[in-house]
Amino acid sequence: MAELHNLKKDKPIESKSTVKIESKTFKLAENDVRLKLTVVDTPGFGDFVDNSKCWEPIVKYIDDRFADYLAEETKIDRSPQIEDKR
C-alpha cells in the first residue's frame, strides 16, 4: 500500500525510432550459379501512432535505385556491365 502513495516518475525512455533504410549485399555461389542478393531492412517502419506517410522513405529508396539504373543505362558511353542495385 505504501508503494501506491509513493509513486516516483520514471525517466522517459528515449526512443529514436526512425524509418531508415539499411541494405546489405551478399554474393552467393552454389555449384555454377552465382547470385548477388541485397536485403533491405527498414527498422522503425510502422512504429509510430500516425503511420499515414511511413511508406514514403521506402518508396523514395526504390525510386532512387531505379533512377540510378536508368541513368547508367541511358549514358552514351556506358559500361557493358551495369551494376544493378534495384
Structure described in brief:
Residues 1-86 form the Septin-type G domain. The protein is an alpha+beta fold.
What is the topological layout?
Layout: H1 2-5, E1 22-30, E2 33-41, H2 56-73
Antiparallel strand pairs: 1-2
GO molecular function: GTP binding
Protein name: Septin-type G domain-containing protein
Organism: Meloidogyne floridensis
Explain what this protein looks like in three dimensions.
It is a single chain. The chain is α+β, with helices and mostly antiparallel strands. The chain has a domain at 18-73. It is 26% helix and 21% strand. The protein has two helices and two strands. It has helices spanning 2-5, 56-73, and strands at 22-30, 33-41. The chain has a two-stranded antiparallel ribbon. Strand 1 and strand 2 (33-41) form a beta hairpin. The model has no long low-confidence stretch (mean pLDDT 78).
